């Protein structure tokens, strides 16, 4: 079955809602390299659980190496906090997917960060908390 929607997750969603992500009905998820690295550095137990989801082919959790892709790499700006840089990198990856997939598939950014959600919507992305 082909996806009609892809979820792009921010780091806080993974760190704080891993139990929800492990529900078998949740599929078609994009995990950016940014998120994977931040989760690994913040909480190794959650990283292991996320890796298990990624290796389960039925779940269709896909890793996107956004930090190594010329169209999605974002340089950290002077004075930009690591968190703001990561949020911007995740939004850029979601924007890229939205352009690549066009109208065929909805791309939805899930974030626990109100400011990140506001910036995503302002840039034309669909975003929910």
From TrEMBL:
It comes from the Eukaryota. It holds the Pfam family PIN_4. InterPro entries: PIN-like_dom_sf (IPR029060), PIN_dom (IPR002716). This is PIN domain-containing protein. It comes from Phaeocystis antarctica. Residues 5-118 form the PIN domain.
């Amino acid at each position: 079955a082909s996806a009609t929607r892809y979820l792009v997750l921010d780091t806080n969603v993974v760190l704080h809602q891993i139990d929800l992500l492990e529900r078998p009905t949740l599929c078609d998820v994009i995990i950016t390299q940014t998120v994977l690295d931040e989760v690994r550095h913040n909480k190794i137990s959650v990283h292991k659980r996320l890796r298990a989801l990624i290796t389960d082919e039925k779940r269709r959790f896909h890793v996107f190496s956004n930090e190594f892709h010329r169209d999605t790499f974002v340089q950290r700006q002077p004075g930009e906090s690591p968190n703001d840089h990561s949020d911007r990198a995740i939004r850029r990856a979601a924007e890229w997917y939205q352009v690549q997939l066009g109208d065929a598939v909805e791309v939805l950014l899930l974030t626990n960060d109100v400011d990140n959600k506001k910036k995503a919507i302002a840039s034309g992305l669909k975003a929910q908390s």
